[in-house]
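User: I'm new to structure prediction. If I give you an amino acid sequence, what do you actually give back? Let's try with this one:
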Amino acid sequence: MTTKSTTQQWVKSTYSDNGGTCVEWAPRTAILTGTVPVRDSKTPDGPALALTADAFTAFVASVKTGDFTPAA
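Assistant: Good question. You get back a string of structure tokens that encode the predicted 3D arrangement of the chain. For your 72 residues, that looks like this:
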């Protein structure tokens, strides 16, 4: 599911690097609705993914373990 990403307050992930691969999420919206909006910071007017809290937790855990690190 996607949602338009114009009204949330966005926070850049601390795991994003400065190479343009930044992910943002809207924690206030997550708290109020239980749905975690996630978007690409390069396209702030584009769509956002609407993740369940469980899916977002699994995504963050995978990022922390390096599951999304490109192969050399």
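You can read the tokens as a compact description of the fold. Here is one thing that stands out. The longest helix spans residues 53-64.
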